[in-house]
Amino acid sequence: MKLKEDLAAVNNEVQNLKTLLKQQRLQSEIECVGEPTKTYVAGIQKSVDFLSEDHHNAKEFWEKTLQELGKLSHKLAEISSKADNMAAAIDDLQKYSFQYNVKIVGFPNLQENHESAEATAEICVKLFHAMGATGVTANDIDIAHRVSTRRSDGHYAKPIVCKFVRRLARKEVIKRRRDISKVSPATLGLRPEFKMDDIRIYEHLTPNLQQLLSEANKLKTSHQFQFIWVKNLDILARKTSSSQVFKLKCMADLDKLKRSLDGQLTTE
Questions:
Q1: Pick from 6, 47, 120, 147: most CB atoms within 10 A?
Q2: Residue whose C-alpha is closest to residue 126's, from 115, 138, 114, 117
Q3: CA angle 63, 69, 74 (to 5 degrees)
Q4: CA 202, CA 106: separation in Å to the nearest integer?
Q5: What is the pTM of this model?
């Protein structure tokens, strides 16, 4: 979240300023210890008094400045906490909305021109019925539409996001999604040589969860995990078929898992 990053940057600047002021105060105190000695030897008592008063004023200024910076740091911490809570609330709302969605990847466009939402919904129903989810009807679909991605061009069909009005319909589709490979392309109006294995149905992840899944897949390579998968919008990780399953809901969970694994490698 951009707001949180900005707050962290400001807080770092405040901490750097506090450190600099402390260093300058220490340096001034060191200098003021040596300077009165020189002036005393020279017999210039007036300069000693002046320096003493100047040092007192500077010290008072630094102390007040540090107090104000401390208050500012506390306020920034409060704002940062509120930003965290806001981000968590937004993420929860997104997850609640996305729990009714599936994402269909690899289904080609059947129309050269813009595909209407009605046509996309009809494609979804045909696909669901063909793979065995016969209990799903057009009335179970709130909306279905194509979405753009970085790979969406003339060579790659845009993915379809299908939003259901009830979770039981979505659950039936998720349960049957592995049966897509058994479907005949002709049933869906596709070329006979079309490879049905190219069509995949996924749980539709929020942007934050999509990023978390991407980072988890990097962990799969770096720490030799056999399984990274998604179930009910939770990202799950398992090193072997008989080892512990780790549930990853946020980046903090992934960082904690990484530290745990790195600690194990260090002790081995």
A1: 120
A2: 138
A3: 130
A4: 11
A5: 0.66
For residue 151 the two structure tokens come to: 């790979």
User: Which residue has 């999509």 as its token pair?
Assistant: 210
Backbone angles phi and psi of 44, in degrees to 5: -110, 80
Structure tokens at 240: 């072997």
Q: Is the pLDDT of residue 101 over 90?
A: yes
Name the DSSP letter for residue 190.
Answer: -
Instruction: Give Cβ neighbours of residue 71 (< 8 Å, ≥ 6 apart).
Output: none
Question: Is 87 in contact with 4 (CB distance < 8 Å)?
Answer: yes
Instruction: Encode pLDDT of 46-87 as tens digits.
Output: 554 554 555 566 667 667 777 777 777 777 778 777 877 887
b/e code 25-62 from CB counts within 10 Å (16+ = b): beeeeeebeeebeebeeeeeeeebeebeeebeeeeeeb
Distance CA 143, CA 118 (A): 8
8 Å CB contact between 224 and 232? no
- Please state, in angstroms and rounded to a whole number, the distance separating the CA atoms of residues 140 and 246: 33
163 alpha carbon, distance to own chain's centre:
23
Catalogue the E-assigned strands of 21-166: 101-105, 141-146, 160-164
Structure tokens at 38: 């020189």
Residue 7 to residue 13: CA distance in whole angstroms? 10
Dist. CA 139–CA 71, nearest whole Å: 57
Beta bridge partners of 250: none
